[in-house]
C-alpha cells in the first residue's frame, strides 16, 4: 500500500489500526516509535478506564448472588474471582508487546496479541468470542440503564401515591432514550478521546455503590440484625432445583462483575511509554481490582445482611429500599451516567475493528475513508466520517432492539459473565503467557496454569447453564414490547 493511502488510514484510526506500511517517525514529540500518534495515558487514566469497565452494573446483583450462595461461599467465591482476574490480567499485560517487554512489537488490540503470539485458528476463535461478548455487554448495559431510569420514575410515582399505585411501566421508551444518547457519544472517534467520559463514569460508579452501601448499613443499624445464613437461601423458600440453578447463575453474575480483560489490551494501548506499558498497567490492574473488590464485598455483603433471602436482583432498583426516595433517584441517575460511559469503553474496540477492516478492504472508497472537518468554536475541528456515522448508529440501534426483546437483568448479566470469563479472562491470557515465556510442557508451572484454566472452564459451564435456565423461565411469561414492570 502506498504512503498516501497508509497515511490516510492512519489519520482515520489513530488508536487501534495495525501498521499498514506507515513510515516510522522516530519517536518524535508528536509520534511514537512506530509512527502512530503519541499516547498520553497514565496510571490514573488507565485505572479510571478499568474501574469504569469493572464496577459496572454487575455490582448491583452481588447481594442477590451472595443470597444464593450464603455467607461462606458468597464472599469466598467473590474473593477467588478477584484473585484469578488480577493474576490473569497481570499475565495479559505482558502480552502487549511481542518479545521484548520494552521495545518489542506493540499489539494494539486483544486480537492482535493472540494473532502475534498464538496464531492459527485461535485468532478467529478469540475474535468471535471477544466481539460477541462485547456486543452482549452492550445489550446488558442498555437493559441495566433502562431499569435504573424506570426506578427513578417508579420511586417518584410510589412516593406520590403513598405506596398505593403499583406504578407499572414499559422499559422500551427508556431503552430508546439510552440508545439515542449512545448514538451521539459513539461518534467520538477513538478510545484515547473518551478518557474524560471514563473518569466521570468511574466517579458515578463510586457514587451509586457508596449509596447502596450506606443504605445497607443504615438498614442493618435500624433492625440491629444481620440477616442471611451460612448456606444461602434455604430449600422451601425455593425448590431444590431452583436453588442449584440460581447458585450456578450467581457464579455467572460474579464473573460478569469482573469482566474487563476483553478490553485490557485496548486500555493498555492508551498508556504512554516510558516507563514500559506493562509496568504501568500492572499497577493500574492491582489498584483497580483492590478498590473494586473492597466495594463489591461491602455492597454485596451489606445488601445480603439487609435483606437476607429476599435480597433483590438489582440492589437499587428492586425496591428493597424505598426511602429516602430522592437518594435512590441520585443513585439511579449515577448508574445511568456510569453506564453511558461504560458502554463506550466496551464498544470502542468493536467500532475500531470493523472500521479497520473496512478501510483495508475498500481503501479507495471516499465513503469509508474521507473525513469532513466540522469547525467547533474554541476546540479542534470535529472529523466527520460517513461510514463511522452510519455503522456506529446501526450498531447502537441493533443492540437497543435486542435489549427490548430480552430485558432480563440478572439472567443476561449471568450469561455474559459465563460466556466471556473462561476464554477471555483465563484461557487466552494463560496460553499467550505460556507461549511468550516458553514455559516447558509438563513442568510444574505449566501443570498449575493448565489446572487453573480447567477449573475456570468448569465454573463457566455451570454458570452458563444456570443463567440460560433462568432466561428460559423468564421467556415463558414475557411478551416482547408488551410486558410491564
Question: What features would you describe in this structure?
Answer:
The protein has 485 residues and is mainly alpha-helical. Mean pLDDT is 78; it is low at 1-27. The chain is 66% helix and 4% strand. The chain has a single domain (39-477), classed as Amino acid/polyamine transporter I (Up-down Bundle), CATH 1.20.1740. The protein has a two-stranded antiparallel ribbon with strand order 1-2. It is globular and about 65 Å long. The chain has 15 helices and four strands. The chain starts with a helix and ends in an 8-residue tail after the last helix. Strand 3 (371-376) and strand 4 form a beta hairpin.
Task: Summarize this structure briefly.
The protein is mainly α and 485 residues long. It has 15 helices and 4 strands.
Topology:
Elements: H1 3-12, H2 43-54, H3 62-93, E1 97-98, E2 105-106, H4 110-117, H5 121-160, H6 172-185, H7 195-223, H8 240-257, H9 264-268, H10 277-307, H11 325-361, H12 366-369, E3 371-376, E4 379-385, H13 386-405, H14 409-436, H15 444-477
Antiparallel strand pairs: 1-2, 3-4
Helix pairs in contact: 2-7, 2-10, 3-8, 3-10, 3-14, 4-5, 5-6, 5-11, 5-13, 5-14, 6-11, 6-13, 7-10, 7-11, 8-14, 8-15, 14-15
Amino acid at each position: 500500500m502506498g504512503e498516501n493511502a497508509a497515511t490516510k488510514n492512519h489519520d482515520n484510526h489513530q488508536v487501534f489500526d495495525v501498521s499498514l506500511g506507515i513510515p516510522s517517525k522516530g519517536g518524535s514529540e508528536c509520534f511514537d516509535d512506530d509512527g502512530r500518534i503519541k499516547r498520553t495515558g497514565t496510571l490514573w487514566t488507565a485505572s479510571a478506564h478499568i474501574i469504569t469497565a469493572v464496577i459496572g452494573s454487575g455490582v448491583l446483583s452481588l447481594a442477590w448472588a451472595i443470597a444464593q450462595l450464603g455467607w461462606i461461599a458468597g464472599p469466598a467465591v467473590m474473593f477467588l474471582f478477584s484473585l484469578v482476574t488480577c493474576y490473569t490480567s497481570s499475565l495479559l499485560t505482558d502480552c502487549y508487546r511481542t518479545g521484548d517487554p520494552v521495545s518489542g512489537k506493540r499489539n494494539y488490540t486483544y486480537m492482535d496479541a493472540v494473532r502475534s503470539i498464538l496464531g492459527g485458528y485461535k485468532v478467529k476463535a478469540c475474535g468471535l468470542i471477544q466481539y460477541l461478548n462485547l456486543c452482549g455487554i452492550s445489550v446488558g448495559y442498555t437493559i441495566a440503564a433502562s431499569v435504573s431510569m424506570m426506578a427513578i420514575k417508579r420511586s417518584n410515582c410510589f412516593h406520590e401515591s403513598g405506596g398505593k399505585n403499583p406504578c407499572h411501566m414499559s422499559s422500551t421508551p427508556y431503552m430508546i432514550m439510552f440508545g439515542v444518547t449512545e448514538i451521539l457519544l459513539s461518534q467520538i472517534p477513538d478510545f484515547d478521546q473518551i478518557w474524560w467520559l471514563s473518569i466521570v463514569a468511574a466517579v458515578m460508579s463510586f457514587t451509586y455503590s457508596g449509596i447502596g452501601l450506606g443504605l445497607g448499613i443504615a438498614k442493618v443499624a435500624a433492625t440491629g440484625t444481620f440477616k442471611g445464613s451460612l448456606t444461602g437461601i434455604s430449600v422451601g423458600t425455593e425448590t431444590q432445583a431452583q436453588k442449584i440453578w440460581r447458585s450456578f447463575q450467581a457464579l455467572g453474575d460474579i464473573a460478569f462483575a469482573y469482566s474487563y480483560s476483553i478490553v485490557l489490551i485496548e486500555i493498555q494501548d492508551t498508556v504512554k511509554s516510558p516507563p514500559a506499558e506493562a509496568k504501568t498497567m500492572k499497577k493500574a490492574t492491582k489498584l483497580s481490582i483492590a478498590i473494586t473488590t473492597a466495594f463489591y464485598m461491602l455492597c454485596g455483603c451489606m445488601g445480603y445482611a439487609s435483606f437476607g433471602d429476599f435480597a433483590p436482583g438489582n440492589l437499587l432498583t428492586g425496591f428493597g429500599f424505598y426511602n429516602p426516595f430522592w437518594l435512590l433517584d441520585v443513585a439511579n441517575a449515577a448508574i445511568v451516567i456510569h453506564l453511558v460511559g461504560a458502554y463506550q469503553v466496551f464498544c470502542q474496540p468493536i467500532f475500531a475493528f470493523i472500521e479497520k477492516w473496512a478501510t483495508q478492504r475498500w481503501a479507495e472508497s471516499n465513503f469509508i475513508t474521507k473525513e469532513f472537518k466540522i469547525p467547533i468554536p474554541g476546540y479542534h475541528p470535529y472529523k466527520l466520517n460517513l461510514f463511522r456515522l452510519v455503522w456506529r448508529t446501526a450498531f447502537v440501534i441493533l443492540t437497543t432492539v435486542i435489549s427490548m426483546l430480552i430485558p432480563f437483568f440478572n439472567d443476561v448479566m449471568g450469561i455474559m459473565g459465563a460466556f466471556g470469563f473462561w476464554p477471555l479472562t483465563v484461557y487466552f491470557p494463560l496460553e499467550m503467557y505460556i507461549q511468550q515465556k516458553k514455559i516447558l510442557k509438563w513442568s510444574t508451572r505449566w501443570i498449575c496454569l493448565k489446572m487453573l484454566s480447567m477449573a475456570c472452564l468448569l465454573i463457566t459451564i455451570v454458570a452458563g447453564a444456570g443463567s440460560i435456565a433462568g432466561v428460559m423461565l423468564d421467556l415463558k411469561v414475557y411478551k416482547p414490547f408488551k410486558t410491564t414492570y
